[in-house]
Specification:
It is a single chain. The protein has 201 residues and is mainly alpha-helical. It has two domains: 9-115, no CATH class; 128-196, no CATH class. The chain has helices at residues 9-30, 32-35, 74-78, 83-115, 128-135, 157-161, 168-196; strands at residues 48-51, 58-61. The protein has a two-stranded antiparallel ribbon with strand order 1-2. Strand 1 (48-51) and strand 2 form a beta hairpin. Helix 1 (9-30) packs across helix 4 (83-115) and helix 5 runs parallel beside helix 7. The chain is elongated. 3% of the residues are buried.
């Protein structure tokens, strides 16, 4: 059929190598959060269904669509001038970031709101006190050495530059919160070990 004559695996691999992979790599350099996300190619994108705690509700999350357009001057490319190709790849990477990241943060917000892991700042800007309030609402895991794996704090550059250092009282509150979370984590681990133990053991 027309349109499928040149739909060959080696052509798709070439597109991946010379177009899609460079665009993804450039997008990673433009957004540090995107750079941390693992990409996995699948044949079908499933809908995600999550049972909400302490309720009978189910949060249904559908896949979202992203797109970017790669354009270049074929004549320049044939003449050995690859500036338009590089500019096209860079522009496509910008489009990808602006297409993907708002949707990712929207999904995170929807899930956080649904499970009750959000704090209403009531118009306030970011502060360490608000961060501590938010931290108190989430489960914090610990590694084998007892070190907490705190959630990543993501802020725009302007907000991050204006954040003051933590006060001694805020440092003390963080230390107390981490100790409480460590006790909760240890209690859950003990419960899981007891739950897995065979009866009569």
């Amino acid at each position: 059929m027309p349109g499928e004559l040149f739909d060959l695996p080696e052509y798709r691999r070439a597109v991946d190598r010379f177009v899609r992979d460079p665009i993804n790599a450039l997008a990673n350099t433009k957004d540090p959060v995107l750079a941390q996300l693992q990409r996995v190619r699948v044949e079908v994108l499933p809908r995600t269904r999550m049972s909400l705690p302490d309720t009978e509700q189910v949060l249904d999350t559908a896949p979202f669509q992203t797109e970017s357009t790669f354009t270049f001057d074929a004549g320049d490319a044939l003449d050995g001038d690859f500036d338009t190709i590089l500019a096209g790849l860079d522009e496509a990477a910008n489009q990808l970031v602006h297409s993907v990241m708002p949707q990712i943060f929207d999904q995170i917000s929807r899930v956080s709101d649904a499970v009750g892991n959000t704090i209403d700042a009531q118009g306030q800007g970011f502060s360490w006190d608000l961060w501590l309030q938010g931290l108190a609402t989430v489960e914090i895991p610990f590694d084998d050495d007892g070190n907490p794996r705190l959630p990543q704090l993501i802020l725009n550059p302007q907000t991050a530059a204006a954040i003051p250092e933590m006060t001694p009282a805020q440092h003390a509150a963080l230390g107390e919160l981490i100790e409480n979370k460590r006790e909760e984590w240890d209690a859950r681990r003990r419960h899981r070990r007891l739950s897995r133990r065979p009866r009569g053991a």
